[in-house]
Amino acid sequence: MDAILLQILNGLDKGSAYALIALGLTLIFGTLGVVNFAHGALFMIGAFCAVTLQRILTLSQTTIDETRTDFLGNPMQVDTPYVVLWFGESTGAAIVDWAVPLAILFAIPVMLIVGVVMERGLIQHFYKRPHADQILVTFGLAIVLQEIIKAFYGANPIPTPAPQAFRGSFDFGVLVGFDPNTIIYPYWRLVYFAFAAIIIAAVFAFLRYTTFGMVVRAGMADRETVGLLGINIDRRFTAMFGIAAAVAGLAGVMYAPINAPNYHMGMDFLVLSFVVVVVGGMGSLAGAVLAGFLLGILESFASMTAVIDLIPGINQIIIYLVAIIVLLARPRGLMGRRGVMEE
């Protein structure tokens, strides 16, 4: 039971990232009908928002510390972050330590702007073009964004630590009645799962309970009728593209301590997230979330040593096998609308 529970936790952790990225992808496809292969790059940009803020907060001024000397007896030069000089040692150190959570506030406007510029500057010209054209142009855009990040930040992963309070591991087994040290799980992965649940709930609440969200859902169902009512649905869909970009960016920000950001991390998640969307059902927000967590848990169980010994390499292909089975049995996906991908 402890091994099963540990794999479920691992699956929820992976599934959180899959679900958040797939949720943004589905928002874009459901509102604009665009297959956005640059969505993984938005996840990457979010992670590098955390890297950027960390670098900004650690900008330092060199000062002379008269109380410390080097081996020659000369006063030592000390690099002190500006935030420490401005806010004091304890407050400044806390700000630097909490760089990743603070990056959420930094990433939201950045990702909204990136999303709106991407949609207005490029994607809007491909609304009526075939999906193949959309895939090609957005995949090309993803490569361009990837190379820009590589040029500015280099090719190596950049460690971005979580706050000190959330480093280390939590004895989860004791919480559910197991012996001590039976199930040890990292604090930040639990934080990431809770964060993903909050973002997913917020997106669904926004679409369901706000006037803006209701108009968007109506536009997803019948764009022409909503337009005839005098509502500028295009402007609202552009805003939804920005929101979808922000969701992907926030997923990347909080994932930075789990997997050190690198320029190709967006591509690593891109194919998997599209598989999640297809399995859940193109255009189905609930399907994207359900499939994200389901495939995350299946991938986690397939990574167990006993399973790999029995079926070598199964952990590398389990998601694609499930996708094949689901699409053969139900081409529109688990919760897709009738007629979508069934022609």
UniProtKB/TrEMBL annotation:
GO terms for molecular function: transmembrane transporter activity. It is found in: Cell membrane. InterPro entries: ABC_transp_permease, BCAA_transport_permease. Pfam families: BPD_transp_2. Its main location: membrane. The chain crosses the membrane at residues 15-35, 42-64, 98-123, 190-216, 237-258, 270-298, 310-329. GO terms for biological process: amino acid transport. GO terms for cellular component: plasma membrane. This is Branched-chain amino acid ABC transporter permease.
